[in-house]
C-alpha cells in the first residue's frame, strides 16, 4: 500500500506457466492496491525509480535470471522490492544489498538464509504471490473464455491428452520433466506447467494461467512435484499430494503456506534437506574416471563368476 499512486517499474520473473500465475496474481494485487505500474524487462532504465521484482524461485543456483536483474538495477534504482522468493546461495549478491532494498522470502528457510547473510537488510517473510489469485474471477474472465479454448486444446493435444481424458483418470500425475525433478524416471500424465508456454506479456500470461487452472480443475485428484500445481489445487479445493523438488522448495513452502489446507498433503520422499550451497559438480574428466572404475569393478565381478 505504501506505493499506492506511485508509478513503479515491475519486472516479472521469467519462467513457466506457474510463473504466469504469479504474474497474473501480482498484477491483480497491484490494481487492488492502486499501484500505477509499468511492466518492463531487465534492460530497462532503472535510474532513480522504484522497482518491484516478480516473486518465484529464480534466485537459486540453477537459475540466474533474477540475479542478473537485481545486478542491473541494484546501483541505479532508488528503491528495490523483491517479491516473495525462494532463495538459496547467492551470498555475494545478498551481502551487496543496502537499505534501498527489501527482500521478501516465501519460506522460513530462505528468510533465515538471507537474514544470516545480511542482518541489516530489510528482509521479510510472506507467501507466494499466486495465493493472491482470485481463481473464480480468472476462470470466469470473459476474454479468457473467448480466446483460451484453442490455446488450451492445442497445448493438451501436443501431449496427446484432453480435458476429457484428464477428467476420467482417478488420479492425475502432473510431474516435472525438467532439471528440478528428483527423478528423470518419474511417471507423468502431463507436465502441465510446460504445456502452455511461459511468461511473456501480461495478457498472454493471464491466458496461459487460465489454461493452467482449467486443466487442473478437471482433475479428480492430483499427485505433483510442481509447487504451483499444488497451490492451484489448494485454491480450487482439489485433493493433492505434493512431492519435493530438487532443492527442497516444495517442502519448505508446504510447511510455511500449504500446511493449513486440508486437501493438500506432502509426501516426504526427499530424504535429508539439501544444503543451500550445492556441491560443485565434478569435472567431465572426474566423472569419466568414475565411470571407468565402476566398469572395471563390474568386469572383475563377471570374471570372478
Task: List the keywords.
7-stranded parallel β-sheet, 41% helix, 305 residues, globular, 4-stranded parallel β-sheet, alpha/beta, 11 strands, 11 helices
Can you describe what's shown?
- This protein has 305 residues and is α/β, with parallel strands linked by helices.
- It has helices at 17-32, 65-73, 91-96, 108-117, 135-139, 142-157, 163-168, 202-217, 227-236, 249-258, 284-304, and strands at residues 7-11, 36-39, 50-53, 56-59, 79-87, 101-105, 122-125, 172-174, 221-224, 239-242, 264-266.
- Helix 9 links the parallel strand 9 (221-224) and strand 10 (239-242).
- Helix 1 crosses helix 8 (202-217) and helix 8 packs across helix 9.
Helix share bin: 40-55%
Number of strands: 11
Largest sheet, strands/sense/barrel: 7 strands, parallel
* Average pLDDT: 90
Proportion of residues in β-strands: 15-25%
Span between N and C termini? 74 Å
Give the low-confidence spans.
278-283
Q: Which term fits the overall shape?
A: globular
Number of helices: 11
Structural class, from helix and strand content?
alpha/beta
**Cα-atom radius of gyration:** 21 Å
Order of helices and strands: EHEEEHEHEHEHHHEHEHEHEH
